[in-house]
Model the fold of this input.
Amino acid sequence: MRKNMKKRAALLLAAMMTVSVTACGGGKTPDAPSDADLKKDVQEYITEVVDESAKISNFRVEDSGEGKNDTYEANCIVTYANDTMQYVDEFDLSYEVKDNAWNLEKCKVNSDYAEKSSQAVGADTSKAQTDSSEAAEATTEAAAATATQLSDKLEDYTFMLEGDVYQLPFAYSVLADKGWRIYDSGYYDDTKINGNSYDDITLQKDKKTINVYIINASGNAKELKDCNIGGISVYGSNKNAPEFSIAKGIKVGDKEDKVREAFGSPTDTSNYDEYNYLRYGEDNSITNIVCDNGTDEYNDAQVEIKNFVATEDDKKTETSDEVPEYLSTYVAPTELGTDPLSYNIEIENQVYTLPAPVSAFTDNGWKIASQEDSVPSGRSLSSAIKLQKDGKEIEASVTNFADYQTKPENCAISTLAFYADESKNPEVKLPGGITIKSTSDDLKKWAGDKFDYSKSGDSEYYDYYDDDNEGSIYINCKKTVSSMSVKKETWPSK
Done:
């Protein structure tokens, strides 16, 4: 192990390795390296730096740019292992054109990412993992989660995994106690799962992998280790898939005729050249079965069952009256400004920046006319609160950035929308002076190249969407502005 750790240190300290990637072309820039080329270079790199037994098991190109100006860069997430350690690393690759071929000039490992993601093969992924058995004993529902036998009824939501039978939903700790470990980078036993939400993650045991849905049906945030398994998916393309079956012994790869004979006509179906999709059930309690037609080399077969239901404890979530501390960090802008993407908005001569605490509005004289009973932790709720002032009205969506369920009045307003035909609209202005009365020419000058533009009939649309910060601005114009909305669902300090 000591020798292995030294090699690990060498990997993280290494900054550069040059490998030629075959490419063709005359005097022009060769075609960009393929994913296979990238994988080959990374494999050669880890073979040299770790040891010859280290092999890539999963390779994903996260980000890449087109080859131009004789340079090319790519970002890859790579899972690999030798006899004693498994690694999940983030590699940054840089190429340059030399002799009409792409040459790997730099292979850099993100050490922060690596330190979080590497683990001994078969070991726990975090300290919290060791608490799994205690969590199982403390949860009576977990003790009853494992069914005694596989049901013949889909609606019982039982499945067999490696000889053990389970019934959805059941405590995550039950699988953890069976030796299943988190295989996704960025997820740990203590990862927070927002209220009334789920995450899709990969688990591994003895080099076999499954995809499961981690659900938190309560209103408060929970650590992953305290959540339930609400669903499971197994794919025919997964060469490391375990033994798995559902009601009546149906397995991944079974033909459509066999599935229909077992369960009858599906609730919904879609047919494609490569596969047929069958769905049984409705809403959050469904079984999806994909039957591969064998028309191409890729195996599309899949079995997925989900039963996203709340336990009795989940239903007992109390709504807290506590005002979250983060709201006190809000700083109102001193001026509206001219930047369309600032998420500033002026309402009745008062300037706000989204997201803004509901209290920022009530402090300026707005009264709560109505509101929803509660907002789960980490969730946004549309039209959750209505504010009134001097005959004017605002209906707003809010986001709860706290770890507990609370009332809309203790949340932040994250979306505001206004329509030209609403008689109770307050006076509203966007940065640069855009109002409901602004014309199409005003918008064109204002938006510049920062917004996507489209037109349908007599309507013009200006759209901006910031995926990273969960922000968006939409404006619809018919000669003058007919509607506008501003949305930002990321708190600055979070």
Observations:
- The two ends are 38 Å apart (CA to CA).
- Confidence is low (pLDDT under 50) at residues 1-26, 114-145.
